[in-house]
Amino acid sequence: MKVRVKFFAILREKVGTAEITRDIEEGSTVGDLWRALQKDYPKIDVPGIRLLYAVNQNYVKADHLLSDQDEVVFVPPVSGG
Q1: How far apart are CA 68 and CA 10, in angstroms?
Q2: Which stretches of the chain drop beneath a pLDDT of 50?
Q3: Strand order from edge to edge, sheet including 71-75
């Protein structure tokens, strides 16, 4: 299966691109995808990082099962004032 992954803010800077296409195994969850991406992009492997996850423009939890052609967005915490 293929999914399109979008990165925002600091994640985009650390990965070096705003969007990638990723092959995943059937039965993969958003959490599985995140852990795989942390291995591919060690700069985003930050202990304790709290993210929001969205699949096809709907917020989901890490245990959400992915489907072929899903759009997955990882949103880091927002800071500033």
Answers
A1: 27
A2: none
A3: 19-23, 2-7, 71-75, 52-55, 58-60
Q: Count CB atoms within 10 A of the CB of residue 71.
A: 13
The Cα–Cα gap between 6 and 73 comes to 5
Look at residue 49 in the predicted model and tell me its pLDDT. Answer: 83
Cα-Cα-Cα-Cα dihedral sign, residues 17, 8, 73, 41 = positive
pLDDT value for 13: 93
- Token pair 């700069």 is found at 43
CATH 3.10.20.30 fits 2-75, yes or no: yes
